[in-house]
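User: My collaborator sent over this chain with a note saying "see what the structure looks like." That's all I know about it. Can you take a look?
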Amino acid sequence: MNGKGYPFGIEGSKLSLSSGIMAMADVFTATTETRPYRGGMDERQAIYTLLTMSESGNLDSRKTRLAVENYNELRNMSAEPEEGRGRV
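Assistant: Without extra context I'll predict from the sequence alone. Here is the result:
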């Protein structure tokens, strides 16, 4: 959102809605899912991280609020088995 992102450095006001949603989804997934090198954050840690990123201008505040308000639903969706999901 602050224009420092890869690859084009576009500021938040010039980003498409879908780009902002993808940014939020990327951070949500990165914080909540277990990775080979670390465990996923618990709800409190993940929400703190999202809100901190929003307050610093790295995530859109409205999209962050919606993600936090729907944390459990988003977490359940991301925890579904990947079978049947399209792969890119």
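A starting point for your reply to your collaborator: The radius of gyration is 14 Å.
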